[in-house]
Amino acid sequence: MDQHLIDRAMALRQALAQAGGLAAIDRFLNANRNIPRADRELLLDWADDAVRGVFEVRRADAAPTVLNLVDDLEYRVYGLAQSPSRNSFIIGMLLPLADDDSAWLASGTESFHREGEARQLARLAVEMATREPELVFRNPEKVKQGWEHMRRDREEFLAFFGTDELVLPTAAAEGRLNDYYRQRRDVALAARGRHRAVSETGETTFVMPDGFFEFRTVGVIYDPTDGFVVVPEYGMLRAMFANPALAADREHASVLRAYLREDSIPPLPLQRLAAAFPRTVDAVFQRVLGSKNFIWIQNGPGLLRKRKPGHYAREPFPGVAVLSDRVVELARATARAG
Fold first, then answer.
1. Does pLDDT of 197 surpass 80?
2. pLDDT for position 198
3. Could you say which DSSP state residue 97 is in?
4. How many other C-beta atoms can be found within 10 angstroms of the C-beta atom of residue 329?
5. DSSP 273-324
6. Residues contacting 142, CB < 8 A, separation 6+
7. Does the structure show a pLDDT above 90 at 88?
8. Exposure winner among 19, 36, 106, 206, fewest CB in 10 A?
């Protein structure tokens, strides 16, 4: 690795830290318009391709090689504040130095941890994979594994419930879904998805999203592409599409408005309802939106893209993230040792 590039990158890192860190890159570039083109491109790479994780040191030398327990990829790291020992751990962020991912710069905010902390750090990596599966999907092999696991999981869901779409009383939803997970406890440890918690023994439980217990019903859709989706008051919404006269009721109409407004709700439930109720979908949207000219086939896709641009801007990823063999090994081995 060119030492001049490393020194330049470290100087940029320090200047950026003084300006507010990665979150301030745009402001930093606007304030330094005469910055060399190569430095500008490097900073933009940092904004787009920084890697966060829990890193196990595999080889300790001048530029340590580390394994990210979150995405199961190895990185060669320059610019660490201290020299780590083999099998120790680093929590932090890495910044790209080379287009081929062969070299990375420590962001300067790392924390260093002993080998004896492996259990806690493995659990932290699992929590990151569960909360932010996009961190796992930096690894193309994990994307492939995720799609395959989700396909099998969905088949089991269909076999158990007889459908891929449920409307359940909110108070009963956790128990009903946990009946399913108890049946599948022996195969659940390796994969993490939103709305799930997996113990070190492999037992999986459904976790109701925050705030959902205030609603009367919950909808659960296991879609081949969108994966396992949980939405509130799906029963009320389905009732309105089945009987469009309910669109005149303020409470029913407010549910549809919330589905259009909330970023946390994907387009999928509304697409499903439109497909299930083609004869009434136009009347429902016309009444709720106050537009007599609204036609779902013509206007529906554009409405969803306008209201939920983030869902269309990103590439679809599987709904579950498959953990690395190493993080499972660390969690199991240290748990047994404890």
1. no
2. 52
3. -
4. 12
5. HHHH-TTTHHHHHHHHHT-TT--HHHHHHHHHHHH-HHHHHSPP--SEEEPP
6. 71, 72, 136, 321, 322
7. yes
8. 36
Place of tokens 């304030």: 31
Sheet holding 165-169, edge to edge: 165-169, 217-223, 227-232
Residue listed under structure tokens 């799609």: 147
Residue identified by tokens 């579950």 is 320
Per the CB < 8 A criterion, the answer to whether 22 and 47 are in contact is yes
CA dist 162 and 156 (Å) reads 10
Q: Give alpha helix (H) positions in the chain.
A: 3-19, 25-31, 37-49, 118-131, 140-161, 170-183, 234-242, 250-261, 268-276, 281-289, 296-307, 309-313, 325-337
Stretch among 6-15, 126-135, 231-240, 245-254 having the lowest mean pLDDT: 126-135
- CA 99 to chain CA centroid, Å, is 25
The CATH class given to the 3-113 domain equals mainly beta
Q: Where are the domains of the chain?
A: 3-113, 140-313
Indicate the helix (H) or strand (E) that contains 77: strand 74-78
Exposed e or buried b for every residue in 290-314, given b needs 16+ CB within 10 A? eeeebebeeebeebbeebbeebeee
Residues constituting the chain: 338
Report the distance separating Cα 222 and Cα 95, nearest Å. 36
Q: Could you tell me the sign of the dihedral formed by the alpha carbons of 287, 289, 294, 299, in that order?
A: negative
pTM of the model as a whole: 0.79
Say if residues 219 and 269 touch (Cβ distance below 8 Å).
Answer: yes
Residue 2, Cβ density class (10 Å: 0-12 exposed, 13-18 middle, ≥19 buried)? exposed
Read off the pLDDT band of 106 (50, 70, 90): very high
Among all chains, which residue has been given the structure tokens 């549809």?
A: 256
DSSP 193: E
